[in-house]
Amino acid sequence: MQKTSTRLADGRELVYYDLGDAAGRDAADRRPLDAVATASEIRHDPLLDEWVAVTAHRQARTYHPPQDECPLCPSRNGRMTEIPAEDYQVAVFENRFPSLAGPPGPADAEDPGGLFLRAPGAGRCEVVCFTSDHDASFADLTEERAGLVLDAWTDRTAELSALPGVRQVYCFENRGREIGVTLGHPHGQIYAYPFTTPRTERMLRAAAGHRERTGGNLFDDLVAAERTDGRRVVLETGHWTAFVPHAARWPYEVHLYPRRRVPDLTELDAGARAEFPGVYLELLRRFDRIFGPDEPPTPYISGWHQAPSGAEGGKGRPERSDFALHLQIFTIRRTSGKLKYLAGSESGMGVFINDVPPEAAAERLREVASQ
């Protein structure tokens, strides 16, 4: 892999990742851009003990532009985009409309009781362009190119985890208008949070409780139990196991674990890295077949759950070694032409109601395996 870092006209970083020739990576961004101005802050919810980002500047972000005005395509024929090169393999750049940006700062209370805490919305948000082909999807990539994306995710995880104040890194892809995607070009995002996310905090608490009760690791025991049961296993290889969780929240949801437990992408071994592209592409292609050959592409969210890192002194959290890296893929489509909406129970109370039994979802995902 060859990595080339450069700057856009407004000072944001752009990084190219290439296999082989990296011609054109010195192309300059000639757009007359104003400096990026963000107004991000985080506010603490004392009832849930969670942080919420408030980002008024994102109201002006690009929204469903015509294909010939896509900002993620290469710069060609005199039209300049976010990526100055005439072609690229994988490109990563700082989001012009980030939810989180800048250095950390102290939390201040607005009230005498200290209930209304707010702090700078520190961190970093990046856009990951998987390919220069506007009409492709991740599932269309070759295994070699999918491996390059994995290399980019891994490199960005290492770089962002080392930033001051960053506590967790999340690499993810939103795919499809139904999910809320506003740019059709195949791309994902990376968020570097200034706190450990609520979902991760809950997993860490559950893992600590499990270790106290049993002496074992919750993630290891869960994967072993799913493999032993077998009904929800979607596919297995020498280095990876994919299954629909026993208590899946979404109509079709798959969790993908490496056989050897590691806290984040930087610690995957060579065998797991070599097998991942084939396994992941197969899962994505199966998702596109769930509802039949004449259905539109399946909308999904896919993201890496990684251990917290970057605590004071750079040592990370003590629970880090107990955490297990895993990928979660799910769709909000529950059947042909129908979506799963997060209505009263889910949005109001956080109690999910799944219309598709996990065993049936796993069976369907096995049925649509590549021949």
What does this structure look like?
With 371 residues, the protein is of the alpha+beta class. The protein contains six helices and 17 strands. An eleven-stranded antiparallel beta sheet has the order 1-2-5-8-10-9-14-15-13-12-11, with helices on both faces. Helix 1 crosses helix 4. The model has no long low-confidence stretch (mean pLDDT 95).
Helix and strand pattern: EEEEEEEEHEEHHEEEHEEEEHH
Oligomeric state of the chains in view = single chain
Percent in helix: 10-25%
Relative strand content: 15-25%
Helix run count: 6
User: Compute the gyration radius: what is it?
Assistant: 21 Å
> What overall form do the CA principal axes indicate?
globular
On the 0 to 100 scale, the average pLDDT is 95
Please give the structural blueprint.
Layout: E1 2-7, E2 13-18, E3 40-45, E4 50-55, E5 90-94, E6 108-109, E7 117-120, E8 124-129, H1 143-161, E9 168-175, E10 187-193, H2 198-214, H3 218-229, E11 233-236, E12 240-243, E13 252-258, H4 270-287, E14 300-305, E15 326-331, E16 333-335, E17 338-339, H5 344-349, H6 358-367
Antiparallel strand pairs: 1-2, 2-5, 3-4, 3-7, 5-8, 6-7, 8-10, 9-10, 9-14, 11-12, 12-13, 13-15, 14-15, 16-17
Helix pairs in contact: 1-4
